[in-house]
Design a protein that fits this description.
By secondary structure, the protein is mainly alpha-helical. Helix content is about 75%, strand content about 0%.
Length: about 325
């Protein structure tokens, strides 16, 4: 991705053009995702109508439902019909329970956003001070400790971490519930108690990843010539980090934070399954099990949209953090 310096009054025009191009790229990417997902799902063995009918199978009813769902049409016609409806917000109807897919996704969205936001908060709160201190004390025992801890966090499987937290905080100490989701309307205390374990499970793992990037970015900035000049002027180490290092290290840090947020919003299937968390990842997993094609297609398309939207926001933040940066 090439970057050029803004030139006078044309800087805002350059940013507008960049936004238009990025939005067009998002549309093309979503189109590609829709083609791949639709094609792969229809190659998977299993008839969603037959699965939905179960023991109530009747040939006449089966043929009628396939016709209503459009499954008796050529697959290309099915795709363009589904795509045309998806553009208007209609992602079809669940084969399993007859509910609109958009409604099912929107019902799960608050739980997904809640978990992703809490996990990212934990990750950032842990990663920023740990990475900065580790870089500022490079080569010290504290640096080695932070590096080792972050490596353990990255290597730790999320399902194992989740089970260990349940054993410790739910079964042994009886401090927190082992699973489930409590909406905010049921009270802040219960909302937080149900949120802590799943958010901590994925938040600490994401925090370990971010810590490594923060340390690397800050360490690279500390090795620049302007840091030597600042030290020669008598600035303290904290003043150097705050005034000179962090402003130059933010861009790679924001990048990895944005990527982690996109990953979390996509739904962490294993963690949602362990903690019975009603998010998008669990919805997609249930759709796979039930051969509920429309729900799976809609869920994947929605997840892809959120990930691409986060990437666009990160690119915009680039220019806000450093006004000299404009994407050419």
């Amino acid at each position: 991705m090439g970057r050029t310096l803004p030139t006078g009054p044309h800087g805002s025009d350059g940013m507008t053009g960049f936004l238009v191009r990025r939005i067009l790229q998002m549309v093309l990417a979503l189109l590609g995702v829709s083609i791949v997902v639709f094609s792969l799902i229809h190659l998977v063995p299993g008839d969603p109508v037959r699965v939905a009918l179960g023991t109530r199978f009747d040939q006449e009813l089966y043929d009628l439902l396939r016709e209503r769902a459009g499954l008796d049409r050529p697959i290309i016609e099915q795709y363009f019909t589904w795509l045309g409806n998806a553009v208007t917000g209609d992602l079809g109807v669940s084969f399993r329970n007859g509910q609109p897919v958009t409604t099912l996704i929107l019902e799960r969205l608050p739980a997904t956003i809640t978990l992703a936001g809490a996990a990212l908060f934990i990750a950032v709160v842990v990663a920023l001070p740990a990475g900065i201190i580790s870089a500022a004390r490079s080569g010290s025992g504290l640096d080695y400790t932070v590096s080792a801890a972050s490596q353990v966090g990255i290597s730790m499987p999320d399902f194992w971490a989740g089970v260990m937290y349940i054993l410790l905080f739910s079964l042994t100490l009886a401090w927190l519930p082992s699973s489930g989701y409590s909406p905010l309307g049921n009270g802040v205390v219960e909302w937080v108690r149900h949120l802590i374990l799943p958010a901590m499970t994925i938040g600490l793992i994401s925090g370990s990843i971010i810590t490594r990037f923060v340390r690397s970015a800050v360490l690279e900035a500390l090795n620049q010539d302007y840091v030597l000049t600042a030290r020669a002027k008598g600035l303290t180490e904290w003043q150097i980090v705050r005034r000179h290092v962090l402003p130059n290290a933010w861009i790679p840090i924001v990048t990895v934070i944005g990527l982690q947020l996109g990953f979390l919003l996509g739904g962490v299937v294993v963690v949602e399954l362990i903690f019975a968390w009603p998010g998008l990842g669990r919805l997609a997993l249930i759709a796979v099990k039930d051969r509920d094609f429309t729900v799976l297609q809609g869920s994947v398309l929605y997840i892809a949209f959120m990930f691409l939207a986060i990437n666009l926001i990160v690119d915009i933040i680039y220019a806000r953090l450093d006004p000299r940066v404009r994407v050419s």
